[in-house]
Amino acid sequence: MSTIVVEQPRSIGRSIWAVVAGLLTVVILSTVVDQIFHMLDVYPPWGQPMPEASDNALALSYRVLITAFGGWVTARLAPRNPMKHAWILGGIGFIVGVAAAIATIPLHWGPAWYPILIPITGLPATILGGWLGSRSSLL
Question: What's the Cα-to-Cα distance from 13 to each of 21, 27, 116, rounded to whole Å?
């Protein structure tokens, strides 16, 4: 005889919050770091193309770290099954990243490899962060 387990509404809300919190972590921290580099004139002003490969490599490097941190946040906040939550966050990020690449590559804001690598590196970074978060006792 098998038992069907139904998540309680409170648990579903906590699951949604875990994924949203990870997403907000990535978006807010990425935007803050971007703004700092714009203010320091490392990057060109907002709205202008960023053609330098080095600028894009810098952006990709901190985005990978921030994305891993977002996966960690999601896993730590998940009421159960932290890796499942990290995979959901990674899947959302992958879909958004692919859509953004499709939309931005034709605009020639920078090298095409940058928007292509965002979803490609984002999914494993999120999963790594989720794995670390599921094994961490820091929170």
Answer: 12, 21, 33
Residue 132's CB is within 10 A of a number of other CB atoms, namely 17
Alpha-helical runs (H) found in the chain: 9-39, 53-77, 82-104, 113-135
Nearest CA among 82, 60, 62 for reference residue 132: 82
Structural tokens at position 50: 């960023």
Q: Tell me, yes or no, whether 115 lies in a domain.
A: yes
Q: Is 2 inside a domain boundary?
A: no
| Structural domain harbouring 111 | 11-43+51-133
Whether 6 is in a domain gets the answer no
**Residues recorded for the chain:** 139
Indicate the pTM of the whole model.
0.89
* Total count of domains within the chain: 1
Residues 89-128 have pLDDT tens digits of 999 999 999 999 999 999 999 999 999 999 999 999 999 9
62, 22 Cβ separation under 8 angstroms:
no
